[in-house]
Amino acid sequence: MNRCGKVLFLISFLLPFLSLAQTQRVDSIKKALKNSVTESAKLNLLCDLSSELVDVNPDSAEFYALQAIEVSKKLSNKNAEATALRNLGWAVSKKGEPKEALPIYKQGLVVAKQANAKLIEGDIFRSIGVAYYHLSLYDSALANYFKALDLYKDIKNDIKIAQVMNNIGNVYYFTKRSDAAETFYTQALEKYKELNNEEGLSKQYGNLGLIYINNRDTLKAVEYSEKSLEYSLKTGNLAGIATSYVNLAYAYEINEQYDYALKAANRALEIRKQTGDKKGIATAIIMLGNIYFKEGDYKRAIEYLEQGDELAVELGLSSYHMEVLDYLSRSYLVLGEKKKAGELNKRFDELQDSIYNADFNARAAEMEAQYKTKEKDAQIQIQELSLKRRSIFLWAAAGFIVLVWVILGISYKAYLNKQKTNALLEKKNKEISHQKQEITDSINYAQTIQRAILPPEKLLQQYLPDSFVIFRPKDIVSGDFYWTLKLATADSGSQLVFFAAVDCTGHGVPGAFMSIIGHNSLNRAVKDFKLTHPADILDKLVELVTEALRAENQAEVKDGMDIALCCLDTEQMRLEYAGAYNPVYIVRQNQVLEYKADRQPIGSFENRKPFTNHHIQLQKGDCIYVFSDGVADQFGGEKGKKLGSKRLKEWLISVSHLPASEQYTRLKTDFGNWQGSLEQTDDVTLIGVRV
Fold first, then answer.
1. Distances (CA, A) of 488 to 161, 432, 441, 553, 611
2. Which of 153, 436, 500, 544 is the most buried if burial means most Cβ atoms within 10 Å?
3. Tens digits of residue pLDDT in 66-104
4. Where residue 322 sits, what CATH number does that domain have?
């Protein structure tokens, strides 16, 4: 029996004992409640009982929470009343009614503020965030999580800080910002390690396992998911064990160990049915559908996906509904039902636009920046308080110095002058350091906003499963950007996938401004003007970019961009390409087919001609590459020369037989070795697609 089988066998053996342990805890509290003498003792036990039952029996949790509210009002105990209202909201939300839980939480928030109970107030803000998260209202979820984080930091509660950092990571994960998600998950993990908190470690190892799944690091994905399961078993928390099973199912799935993935997902479904967790049941059923899809059993995949989708729609879980639409569309396409696949894919695109958009990413970045600013302001307040205390001390010392002055005379006066000079120098140095930090913070914030417009790598891999992106800005912000969009054609039902590597004039902040104009103009050309041929899109792009620059500066600007734009019909195996200076390479049977770009940029240019549209019939196994000139222009090697297009072609040929994930690793390593200790010459973007 291999490691996967041992893990699943161990859990099936332990589960009955864990369930029994939780039942015994509940029975113990009920017994104490029955024997309680005072109303105050009864109130505490009712709050404990409702909290303990939330994950395993939401109906009972609701019943005891209502009793706790009644007793707390009778005793005028605002603290307990706020706690009971929070528990009641939890129970209602766990029953699959997060929208109905919101007014309960908000009532609890009023009571917590009256009691000045910052811990409970933070808990309720966090619970409100969870409710909005389940409703796929990610802006509202993030806003409430950051409010909770401020309160927890104010009272220095590390366990709560770690919990809400995990929640923030979840929002970023589900909105395809895996880098930000990994940052918050890692911070939470470090806190749980310091606290030796097994339940928290279970969650964080599981969530980081999902990050490694997205990054295709299959070994770490399984390792972290199994660690998550080990810790959740130690806690005996059934909800945590079920979540660990789902994560483990994902990990086994990407390792193509479908039998173990199905066993893990079924274990999760069994526990969640036992605890009545409707959202969890939907997640497990959809997971089973995904596994059957990957295994190639499309009919069974459709059966589970449709069953899970019914629950997801009922519970208002938009992100799960969107995932199901994607897999159902692809399943029906494989089974030859193109019309139904096209309809589902259209609904997928519409829902995706409503959930994952640049507006959300910009707002999320703004909230994160505001949170960082608050931390910075708090540090400044501490410094000011320290300076104030220092000032008081200096004034007291000055009184003593006045007495000594009579004795020391001229020599002490010289000493004071020297101190004054040093203080002025120190103040000046602090001012310079502060100004430098403000500039750096502003550029870092600009990077956050610019990153928000880039399509997540997972989205590109969703559209083109065997693909990769290497994106390395020279400075904090980049003049390069990459772009992708999927479109279903109305006439043929084919799936058109657009992707482009774009190099704007310059790099750094000026290039970043141009990248935002270019990104928005590409979206308009396809979505608003309904253009599908790359040459037509580039012609329209010239108009839109020129118009935007004139409107911004009231005069013609010479800035512009180079681009390689492709439109791939995955069903017909056809590629259309047009380029402004940047070519496209297709590696076929160890040979590079180069399709040259027009020698004119996107932007102001004399004697402009319409762009050329190249039609290319692809073959199975072809590799398509588009890139910015920062790749070939990088200095390095033993003689410090440019990489050049010839060497780049040799690299691409050498990796073209590999899967995209391995191509990514090899090319990134080769580029790093070539650069060595030399400075990066320019922004670097390289997209590879294997068909």
1. 44, 55, 41, 37, 24
2. 500
3. 999 999 999 999 999 999 999 999 899 888 788 899 999
4. 1.25.40.10
pLDDT digits (tens, 9 = 90+) for 380-397: 454 544 445 455 445 545
pLDDT band at residue 219 under the 50/70/90 scheme: confident
Give the phi and the psi of residue 583 in degrees, each rounded to 5: -85, 180
Are the beta carbons of 595 and 625 closer than 8 angstroms? Answer: no
Total domains in the fold of the chain: 3
**Residue 553, pLDDT above cutoff 60:** no
Q: Pick the residue with more confidence: 135 or 647?
A: 647
- Residue 530, classed as helix, strand or coil, is coil
The string of DSSP letters for 558-596 reads: --EEEEEEEEEETTTTEEEEEEEB--EEEEETTEEEEEP
DSSP 656: T
Per-residue pLDDT tens over the stretch 582-605:
999 999 999 999 999 999 999 888
What region, left, alpha or beta, does residue 589 occupy, with left being phi > 0 and alpha being psi -120 to 50 degrees?
Answer: left
10 Å CB burial of residue 419 (0-12, 13-18, 19+) is: exposed
Q: For helices 118-134 and 158-174, give the axis angle rounded to 10 degrees.
A: 20
Q: Kindly state whether residues 511 and 589 are assigned to the same domain.
A: yes
CATH number at residue 659: 3.60.40.10
Say yes or no: 290 and 416 in one domain.
no
Distance from C-alpha of 338 to C-alpha of 332, rounded to nearest angstrom: 7
What lies within 8 Å, CB to CB, of 303 at 6+ separation is 289
User: Is the pLDDT at 501 greater than 90, yes or no?
Assistant: yes
In a domain, 188, yes or no: no
Whether 543 is in a domain gets the answer yes
Measured in degrees and rounded to the nearest 5, phi and psi for residue 530 equal: 60, 35
The CA R_g of the chain, rounded to the nearest whole Å, is 30
Residues of the domain holding 510:
454-690
C-alpha count within 13 angstroms, C-beta hemisphere, residue 307: 17
Exposure string for 97-122, b = 16+ CB within 10 A, e = fewer: bbbebbebbebbbebbeebebbbbbb
- Report yes or no on 145 lying in a domain: no
The closest of 573, 567, 565, 443 to 510, measured between CA atoms, is 443
Would you mind telling me the total number of residues written for the chain in this entry?
A: 691
- 3-class DSSP state of 222: helix
Hey, what are 10's tokens? 């161990």
Single-letter code of the amino acid located at 24: Q
Same domain assignment for residues 496 and 522: yes
Asked whether residue 441 falls in the same domain as residue 575, the answer is no
For 65-79, letters b (16+ CB in 10 Å) and e give bbbbbebbeeeebbb
Which residues face 684 on adjacent strands? Answer: 472
Q: Based on the domain organization, do 427 and 480 belong to the same domain?
A: no
Looking at the fold, whether 523 and 465 belong to one and the same domain comes out as yes
Q: For residue 122, how far is the Cα from the chain centroid? A: 23
Kindly tell me the sign of the dihedral angle through the C-alpha atoms of 424, 428, 429, 434: positive
Which pair of tokens denotes residue 98? 């997060």
pLDDT band at 246 (very low <50, low <70, confident <90, very high): confident
Q: Are residues 343 and 395 in the same domain?
A: no
Residues 556 and 421 in one domain: no
